[in-house]
Amino acid sequence: MPPDGQPDSSSGHAVVTGASSGIGAAIVTRLLQDGWSVTGLSRTAADIVAPSFQHRAVDLLEVHPGDLRAALADIPATALVHAAGVLRVGELGGLDREAGALMWRLHVDSAALLADMLAPRMGVGGRIVLIGSRTAGGSAGRSQYAASKAALVGLARSWAIELAPRGITVNVIAPGATETPMLRDPARAGVAPRLPPSGRFVQPDEIAAVAAFLLSEAACSITGQQIVVCGGASL
Questions:
Q1: Which sign, positive or negative, has the C-alpha torsion 61, 63, 65, 68?
Q2: Helix 143-163 and helix 97-104: axis angle, to 10°?
Q3: How many whole angstroms separate alpha carbon 161 and alpha carbon 217?
Q4: Which positions ≥6 away from 55 have C-beta within 8 Å?
Q5: Parallel, antiparallel, or unpaired: how do β-strands 226-229 and 13-17 relate?
Q6: pLDDT per residue rounded down to tens, the chain (235 residues)
Q7: Single pTM value for the model
Q8: Helix axes 65-72, 110-118, angle to 10 degrees
Q9: 3-class SS at 90?
Q10: 8: how many CB neighbours lie within 10 A of its CB?
Q11: Residues of 142-170 as b/e, b for ≥16 C-beta within 10 angstroms?
């Protein structure tokens, strides 16, 4: 934001998934503060009111590609942040195939669908940020979740290679345990989050700050990377 505190009208238009809560909502709030126009996608309406924010009710687990394309047709997107996520846990011998498929659809298939629709419209300075997870490197009891988040790294690095000649960057932010509704989700019973060495859980606005930087011009040479934000949990 410029020194006078007014939004920078030169900022672009970001499409942010999972905009109604947690990391997604924090990213929407930060981008609006930085002068971006934002279209938020989520099943429920986001509790955000701003002239440069619009919400579109979309269930990424159920939406038909044609309907999603129609919903995004009029949006001049210069950035995509895929923050929608869900966690289901299970150990070997008790894996739930449907839960695994659900996470794959939301984390991986939706990322591919959205990027396939929006990246062709982006010019120099376009940005794609995928919210992954520190568990992508492996986590007991969370193998299916970890696999879906690890796949985002493969997508990001592949797209980064494709889009670099067009001046578009693609990166993954991999949070550790973050203070969001997912942290308290009963569906993760038996796999309790561990407090990192920093002594507190990561805050959503800290992830939003990293996302805002990656979307900025200053980050134009960072692409194909996974940035871990975990309070020292990966040390």
A1: negative
A2: 20
A3: 19
A4: 19, 20, 39, 40, 41, 42, 45, 46, 48
A5: unpaired
A6: 343 433 343 589 999 999 999 999 999 999 999 999 999 999 998 889 999 999 999 999 999 999 999 999 999 999 999 999 999 999 999 999 999 999 999 999 999 999 999 999 999 999 999 999 999 999 999 999 999 999 999 999 999 999 999 999 999 999 988 777 766 666 655 667 778 888 888 899 999 999 999 999 999 999 999 999 988 888 8
A7: 0.90
A8: 40
A9: strand
A10: 10
A11: bbbbbbbbbbbbebbbebbeebeeeebbb
3-state secondary structure of 20: coil
Please work out, in degrees rounded to the nearest 5, the angle formed at the alpha carbon of residue 2 by the alpha carbons of 160 and 48.
Answer: 75
Place of tokens 């796949």: 151
Give the DSSP letter of residue 106.
Answer: I
- Amino acid at site 199: G
Q: Are 167 and 184 in contact (CB under 8 A)?
A: no
Name the amino acid, one letter, at 169.
T
- Identify the active-site residue in 38, 60, 81, 145: 145
Helix boundaries (H) for 19-109? 22-33, 65-72, 97-104
145 is catalytic: yes
Q: Assess contact for 83 and 131: CB atoms under 8 A.
A: yes
